[in-house]
Amino acid sequence: MLTQRKTVTIETLTIGGNSHVRVESMLKTPLGNIEACGQEIDTLKEEGCELVRVAFPDMTCLEPLKEILNISTIPIMADIHFNVDLAKAALGAGCKAIRINPGNMPKDGLANLISLARERKAVIRIGSNSGSINNFQLARAKGNRAKALFLAVEEQLKILENMGFEDIIISSKSTSIGETIDANVMLAEHFPQYPVHIGITEAGALPEGLIKSAAGLALLLVQGIGDTLRISLSAPASEEVKAGYALLRSLGLRKKGVEIISCPTCGRRRLDVPKVVDEIRPLIKDLPDGTVVAVMGCEVNGPREAMEADIGIAGTPDGIIVFKKGEVIKHLARDDLRKIDLFFKELL
User: Fold this and answer.
1) Quick one: which of 294, 290, 333, 298 has its CA closest to 312?
2) pLDDT at res. 123
């Protein structure tokens, strides 16, 4: 369905082309609180965040933005609404990526901005969301909101292309899964050369926001649509990154991190599965990327239903069994869970 997308580069991060689907997030902390921003960036880095967007609302945030750019270990994209001077200031401060709506900026100022972006080898993300489409776009789309979202991106894209700028990421988001899917399919069909950022905007809190985001983004990703994603949650930004990788792992698109599979439990269970999952999660986080760990409630579910797991444990009448690809390797006492990471590393 899709032709080869171009690759854009933000610092050393490549997006599009043959690159992995990237996982990004956005700082929840205002730029003015530099120390808290730095702590949040460090937490995001630990979770594997590859690009972080920051709100840049006014010039009072310019010095903090410069400071954040100096200390950040993750590429930064400045998020700007309306004000072309803010966009130019962000590029001047060293930002290698900005998110703007060129349709909301004066033509002369925009021309200067594009010239500066070209000079700085910066990437520009453009796009639409369900709150940004206007009555004219809706009228052109005859009330079809997904098409209006597409038309809004098309208008912005033409502005940049007419100025000879093509280091672009495009995006179209809605709170509606259906609108998001339809709009992004149109983008992919009409503009297959550009990397696409995907997400469900204002998806909500946990667990509803996670379910809604996964339902929508999975439908796009299995069609090959999406080069970078954010799972937008009313939750800490680190949860967005964890969820992003979990989604990509479940679809076989990334192997970063350890995947835990566990049974839903029943009357046969000999292990408190939810409790054990929580206990071993910090113990196994340093296992190789892509490792599948199973936690099963009984010896029946254990090796049989989880035989594809790289390593796993299951409850037994006498304690715990450890199995590898369906084969029982060790019999342990319940208290040995505290050393389970050592057993796993030994057997992998």
Assistant:
1) 294
2) 98
The token pair that represents 221 in the structure block: 């990703």
Selection from 6, 263, 270, 204 nearest residue 123 by Cα: 6
- pLDDT value at residue 49: 98
Taking the C-alpha atoms of residue 181 and residue 195, their distance in angstroms, rounded to an integer, is 16
Go through 107-124 and write b for each residue having 16 or more CB atoms within 10 A of its CB, e for each that does not: eeebeebbeebeeeebbb
Q: The tokens of 77 are what?
A: 């994209």
| Rounded-to-integer distance, Cα 54 and Cα 28, Å | 8
Cα first-last separation, the chain: 39
pLDDT of residue 3: 61
Q: Are 244 and 267 in contact (CB under 8 A)?
A: no
In the chain, which ranges are continuous DSSP H helix? Answer: 34-47, 62-71, 84-93, 107-119, 135-140, 145-162, 177-190, 208-221, 237-250, 273-284, 301-305, 340-347
Distance CA 177, CA 174 (A): 7
Helix (H, G, I), strand (E, B) or coil at 263: coil
**Which residues are paired to 124 by β-bridges?**
98, 168
CA distance 271 to 212: 31
208 C-beta neighbours (distance < 10 Å), count? 12
Q: Per-block average pLDDT, block size 10, for the chain (348 residues)?
A: 80 97 97 96 97 96 97 97 94 97 90 97 95 91 96 96 97 97 98 97 94 98 97 97 96 94 91 90 90 91 88 90 91 82 80
Confirm if 293 and 285 have CB atoms less than 8 A apart.
no
Helix (H, G, I), strand (E, B) or coil at 13: strand
DSSP at 33: -
SS3 content of the chain, % helix, strand, coil (to 5): 45, 20, 35
Give the integer Cα–Cα distance in Å for 11 and 283: 33
Distance in angstroms (rounded) separating the CA atoms of residues 170 and 184 = 9
